[in-house]
Amino acid sequence: MNHLTLHNYVPKTALTNVNELLNRFHFHLKIKSNRKTKHGDFRPLKDGSFQITINNDLNKYRFLITLIHEIAHLKTFKESRKVKPHGLEWKINFQHLLLPFLKPTIFPEELLPIIANYIRNPKASTDSDIKLSLALKQYDEKSDKDYIFEIPLKSMFKYNNRIFEKGEKRRVRYICKELKTNKEYLFHPNAEVELVK
Ligand SMILES: [Zn+2]
Questions:
Q1: How far is the CA of 51 from the centre of ligand 1 (A)?
Q2: What is the tens place of the pLDDT at every residue in 7-66?
Q3: For residue 22, how far is its CA from the centre of ligand 1 (angstroms)?
Q4: Does an H or E element contain 133, and which?
Q5: Ligand 1 centroid vs 149 CA: distance in angstroms?
Q6: pLDDT band at 163, cuts 50/70/90?
Q7: Which CATH class is domain 146-195?
Q8: N or C: which terminal CB in the chain sees fewer CB atoms within 10 Å?
Q9: DSSP character for 145?
């Protein structure tokens, strides 16, 4: 799998950071069809290379968290082979690797405090953290659309068959202008829109 296809799986705003990690830690990344027992895994291969697999049906936030979880295994494995898979060394690596992604341009704002709390003492599976699991589940609906919070300022988008331009945020909502009428409307950050190119 090359870096180009990755943009279908992680938030677009995370791509630069993700590509940096892919260049820093060399591994084969495979996208697998749904396995009920796990979201992903890490494995050293016989030839000395590394493989990370991630399920293809994860929403982009869970995909990103799972990818970082597995990269943390790789980093921990390279540092020492004598530590527990989800021990302290892995936890610290996971925290350090995930922290740069905890920004409101990458994750919905309501998820940020929940993820921040989760990585203080992460478990083997995101599903063992009920709060995080429930919060992530809200985004499970597969969709080609983007959330308003993640598209660039001034970009044009389609919503209910009308074309708008994204404007500044006022308190919690974005002020967007309908192009046809020049009228301003307020949009919730998680409104799903279609970018107009
Ligand atoms: Zn793990």
A1: 13
A2: 889 999 999 999 999 999 999 999 988 777 788 999 999 999 999 999 988 999 999 999
A3: 18
A4: helix 130-137
A5: 30
A6: very high
A7: mainly beta
A8: C
A9: -
Domain ranges in the chain with CATH number 2.30.30.30: 146-195
Q: How far is the CA of 103 from the centre of ligand 1 (A)?
A: 23
Give residue 116 CA to ligand 1 midpoint distance, Å.
18
One-letter amino acid for residue 187 of the chain = F
CA of 101 to the centre of ligand 1 (A): 19
Distance 91 CA to ligand 1 centre (A): 10
Task: State the Cα–Cα distance between residues 114 and 94, nearest whole angstrom.
Answer: 15
Q: CA neighbours within 13 Å on the CB side: how many for 107? A: 23
Q: Where in the chain is the domain with CATH 3.30.2010?
A: 5-137
Give the distance (Å) from ligand 1 centre to CA of residue 110: 25
- Per DSSP, what are the bridge partners of residue 53? 30, 41
